[in-house]
């Protein structure tokens, strides 16, 4: 199948076999896994994942792609297609509906909506075993960035508080049709265990992180003045004169705990 990629869906179809094989190898699906693929497109990843796992659920918004995908999958394994915007899919309910504890999620995510999809998945991290995504390399760099890095920001903190983020390898533009203008990268996200999750209200953490990075050139004392004062910041063992990008994810957890007192 050679479908015409649609700009409105941000479609770039992966076609180069060696990168497809590397992604499937990284995921290493087993017969007892419940695999969910976001945006299967032409099925470049779908079919080999389906062959390994025996069954697969795909979430596809483009109705034009679904009939051919189902037809090609019929001789490979049991494919179920959910026609929906992925942001409207309740992954926790999907796991419960199929009687599984955790899903394994994969996908070549549209660049224009990758961050909302990541945050949506993280909301259901308790029902997810792991996630393997192909994204714009710049986004993967931000996801895995350490404190002090120029690309360390809200995305880095919020994802690292819930998941272990592992960049795996870079995929060049030529591996796609049409070629994007930037490099892509594959990343593995593994949700942390319950005992490793922040012991603070997630909504409060998000509020503080968002405020801190909204004005990242300002000191925390100024950036957080509408959330907590300098004395409260110091009570969290954080310097009010520090800037957002110098704090670790756990520093933000401490700030959230103090702000709740």
TrEMBL record:
Keywords: Cytoplasm, Methyltransferase, RNA-binding, rRNA processing, S-adenosyl-L-methionine, Transferase. This is Ribosomal RNA small subunit methyltransferase A. S-adenosyl-L-methionine binds at residues 12, 14, 39, 60, 85, 108. Coiled coil: none annotated. Specifically dimethylates two adjacent adenosines (A1518 and A1519) in the loop of a conserved hairpin near the 3'-end of 16S rRNA in the 30S particle. May play a critical role in biogenesis of 30S subunits. Signal peptide: none annotated. It catalyses: adenosine(1518)/adenosine(1519) in 16S rRNA + 4 S-adenosyl-L-methionine = N(6)-dimethyladenosine(1518)/N(6)-dimethyladenosine(1519) in 16S rRNA + 4 S-adenosyl-L-homocysteine + 4 H(+). PROSITE patterns: RRNA_A_DIMETH, SAM_RNA_A_N6_MT. One of its GO terms (cellular component) is cytosol. The keyword Methyltransferase applies. InterPro entries: KsgA/Erm, rRNA_Ade_diMease-like_C, rRNA_Ade_Mease_Trfase_CS, rRNA_Ade_methylase_Trfase_N, rRNA_adenine_dimethylase, SAM-dependent_MTases_sf. It holds the Pfam family RrnaAD. Belongs to the class I-like SAM-binding methyltransferase superfamily. rRNA adenine N(6)-methyltransferase family. RsmA subfamily. Its EC number is 2.1.1.182. The keyword rRNA processing applies. It is found in: Cytoplasm. The gene is rsmA. GO terms for molecular function: 16S rRNA (adenine(1518)-N(6)/adenine(1519)-N(6))-dimethyltransferase activity; RNA binding. Residues 19-193 form the Ribosomal RNA adenine methylase transferase N-terminal domain. It comes from Dyella solisilvae.
């Amino acid at each position: 199948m050679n479908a015409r990629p649609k700009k409105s869906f941000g479609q770039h179809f992966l076609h180069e076999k060696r990168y497809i094989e590397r992604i499937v190898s990284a995921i290493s699906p087993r017969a007892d896994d419940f695999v969910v693929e976001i945006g299967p497109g032409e099925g470049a990843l779908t079919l080999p994942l389906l062959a390994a796992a025996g069954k697969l659920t795909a979430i596809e918004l483009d109705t034009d792609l679904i009939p051919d995908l189902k037809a090609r999958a019929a001789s490979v394994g049991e494919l179920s297609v959910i026609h929906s915007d992925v942001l409207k899919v309740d992954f926790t309910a999907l796991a419960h509906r199929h009687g599984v504890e955790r899903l394994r999620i994969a996908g070549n995510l549209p660049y224009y909506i990758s961050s909302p999809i990541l945050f949506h998945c993280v909301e259901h991290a308790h029902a997810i075993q792991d996630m393997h995504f192909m994204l714009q390399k710049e986004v993967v760099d931000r996801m895995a960035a350490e404190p002090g890095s120029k690309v360390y920001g809200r995305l880095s903190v919020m994802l690292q508080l819930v998941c272990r983020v592992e960049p795996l390898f870079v995929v060049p533009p030529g591996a796609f049709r049409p070629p994007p203008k930037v490099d892509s990268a594959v990343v593995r996200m593994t949700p942390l265990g319950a005992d490793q999750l922040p012991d603070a209200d997630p909504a409060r953490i998000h509020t503080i992180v968002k405020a801190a990075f909204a004005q990242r050139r300002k000191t925390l004392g100024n950036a957080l003045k509408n959330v907590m004062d300098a004395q409260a910041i110091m009570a969290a063992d954080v310097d009010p004169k520090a800037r957002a990008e110098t704090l670790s994810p756990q520093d933000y957890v401490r700030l959230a705990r103090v702000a709740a007192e």
